[in-house]
Give the backbone structure.
Amino acid sequence: MIGPDHRSPVWPKPEPGALAGIRICDFTGQLAGAGATKILAALGAEVIRIEDPVRQGRWDILRGTQPFVGEHRGIEAGGSYNNHNAGKLGITLNLRDERAKDLLRDLIAASDAVTENFAAGVMERLGIGYEAQRQIKPDIVYVSNCGFGADGPYASFRSWGPIAQAVSGLTFQSGLPDLPPAGWGYSFMDHTGAYYMAIAILMALYHRKRTGEGQWVDLACIEAAGTLHGAASLDFTVNGRPARRSGMPNSNRSQSPAMAPHGIFACEGSDEWVAIAVRDDEDWQRFADEVGEPWAGDERWRRLAGRLAYEDELERLIGGGTAKHDKHTVRRRLVEAGVPAAPVLRPSERIDSDPRTKDWGLWVTVPHSAVGDTRVEGLPVRLSETDWAIGRGAACLGEDNQYVFGDVLGRSHDEIAELEAAGVI
Amino acid sequence: MAPPNRRPLDGIRVIELTSERCALAGKLLADMGADVIVVEPPGGSPMRAYEPFAGDEPDREQALWWWHYNTSKRSVVADLDQTDGADDFRRLVSTSDVVIEAEPLGRLAALGLDWSQLGRAAPSTTADAARPSAEASRRNERLIWVSITHNGRERPDPPATDLTVLAEGGPAWSCGYDDHTVPPVRGGGNQGLQMACHYAVATLMAALWWREDSGRGQLIDVSMLAAANLTCEFATYFWLNQQVDVQRQTGRHALPQISDPTQVRCADGRWLNTGVPPRRGPEFAALAGWVDELGLTDECPYSELLKLGEEYEQIDILHLDADPLGAEVFGAGRDTVNFLAERLGAHELFVGLQSIGLACGIVYSPEEMLADQHFEARGFPVEIDHDGTPVTYPGAPYKFSATPWHATRAPRLGEHQDLLAD
């Protein structure tokens, strides 16, 4: 597993980040978990990701699945995996073996937090639930993340992004009238679950730093998702008005706050679109002046109430206009007039043609031991004193065994070689 | 419910300049114990005019948007354009740990109220240290300043809303329907605003951690456009790794190729996300067993194929072309779920399939999720007291065992104005 090239850490260490000194014993995977510790790693934490050598780390379905990096294939070439694990260390532990459990105990003792997003109950079955962790390190911070949470009637139910989105109401809230739910065309809650997990880890660590007290955070992705449409939830609990009602959802329009016109309109070309949001009557006046057509001067449109009352007609008129223009032209003219507008950008456009994302440094090229230089996502923040950095690609399976078991846990070269030969690591 | 006696952010004071772009960030901190003081202009935050209202009567104290995004905060009114208001703001900042703002670029600097004027200066030079100015002594060296803008403090700040951020930031491209004459869809709930707040809070926590030892605050510059770009999953990874654009598909992942539907309408009209249909022998056996329990074995046209499925260790769904029988069996699993959907309500199908180990999800509306027994049992819906009247809210996004999440109602306009009298 460990090649001769990986006897010691080979990557230059970036400038110490804000979280320098924090060590995470990390069992996370996929995006909902790995996405959280990726943020911590970029901010300077030492994240030690643990994988099962017997299954070659394939518990994480993103290891070795598409999209692959270029022409590469296999467990080191999963593009999503390589993105979510950039900046972390990678080790292997076969926890079926008692000697691996000894190593794990030592690692937990040397760590600040244990993180995982297994199904509920897996850590207990592995003998490393919260109580066991506390026996090893009384002030450990433990953050678990699963769809339905650690207890409750559905604790055994399984989940991933689209299921969390469905059950939480997020899928329902995304769509157009008289059509099936459009939902989110990707695992929005894997990203967002990871954000909440990162926040939870850091809040619990901050509390420990100031008080010495550790704790367990039980993060249910679906509950995190259930906080993300609060006004709609309160409209029911306060006003008795359900979101499941005629004409709803209609998420390209804006009911809360009420705005009109507010939608996505076809432009010249195939599958080309522009989003336009007229926030208030002043925006409307600017919009109407810029459009400059007789229909835009109709008195009915001058006040929000009129635009809402005849919104279907208004959208048809606007769509008739946008269809004759390039989406970038519509955007430029409206934004210059002071009206919010933006093209719907394809991945190719926003990643490789939008100078704003490149200028930010959003797409980071990192070296990866098996597949060479790859591009991964950075962070959408800049810190004036301790900026983020991602110095390396995802670790290959067991790539940092020597460093972690040797330098961190003090095992000798010979011992590590023996553990490797015995299939313990 | 009594507030817990220990909170992660006890003693941390946050000044938030009210804006829909940063309200969630303040809420996340306030609900975990920070003293978040939201500064409103005379007349109140624009969010107080957002629909819907409690009782449907427009009233600045009854806006449900305001209620949800401003729990656990305190409110003061200060007109930053006036000398008195600006002085109030300066004094608040001088006693605070964190400022969160999403003002139009340049507005605060023009008023002398920006990070560059109130926070610690850019890395200090020896010359500065040699002659401390009156201005420098007013600076709050420990202040952390979170600035949320369209695309950072050094780039243009166009008029923008949640919709336009999700359009040019990428999410909208992936959301919508198989039929591409139907527009892409904005995911609901103002997530374009919330994405930036999530990154802002995670980063702020890192800055608080660093300040504990260094004693130094810093500026955190958050880009809404970048946050949206980083919340697109496969659309981004397919382009970065394969230089191929994904295409949106009804209710499921946008992918380069068209995939099979994953939503089915159930007998009660509600939808179910079917997840991945059975692939392994025991899953086929469990599904056949449940069909039998329901007394539908004879009626179900796929019963024979389900039996065959029990023989499979795992059907290789990526290579169904090479295994015609496997393809047929796999199809039968999916068709059986659809068969059941014609006969069962969405909740019965959801619980039934999950109980036999098949991951799936009912498409709940927000109010249905809040009322579900599982989330009730976990204490997710919470009652927050509104001056004697309990109101049910979505509760904790995470359950901390020692320092639990806790929320109180949003403040009335200027309810804590006496904070400025100190």
